[in-house]
Amino acid sequence: MLRSVFNINSTSMKTNPRPSIDFSRDRFPFCIVWTPIPCLTWLCPLIGHMGICMSSGVIRDFAGPYFVSEDHMAFGRPTKYWMLDPSKARDGVQGWDRGVTEGSEEYRGHMHNLFCDNCHSHVARCLNLMQYGSSTRWNMVKLAVMMPLHAKYVSTWALIRTWLPSILLLVGLLLLLWLVPKA
């Protein structure tokens, strides 16, 4: 009964099982993950650090000059994730892993630049290599716009960790402006 309601095909589930997310171990198969960057995210909660995960859930992120981290994000555990569909990568799961691996190897030869060759660029390169969604036009701006629209927080605490510093700064600024006498 439930299989027909949710249109689950048992044959496709056996041939292409989709690994589940394991929040306790930070395993996010086929996901783009995001975490706040202290100070920068406090000033603008949409700015953060991004990584992309292998089919096994292992996170790869361009963490600094000539360094792609594996399973240890530069600014802490992921607070948001955007689950993508591996069937939209050329050659499916194998194409996904190949794109992430090749993009990561390429970025091990890149100098990190906060404004134009950064973690977002690394994720975009991986998506372009796997031709995700039949596209090779992924870029850091597109990802920066799409991540807040499609991502989910890993927990309520993750949402608080992302937004509370910004809210406190804003409230502090407003109080300061209100309390300072006008000349």
TrEMBL record:
Is the keyword Transmembrane in the record?
yes
One Pfam family name from the record?
A: RTE1
Q: Which UniProt keywords apply?
A: Membrane, Transmembrane, Transmembrane helix
Any transmembrane segments, and where? 162-180
InterPro entries in the record: TMEM222/RTE1
Q: What's the protein here called?
A: Putative conserved plasma membrane protein
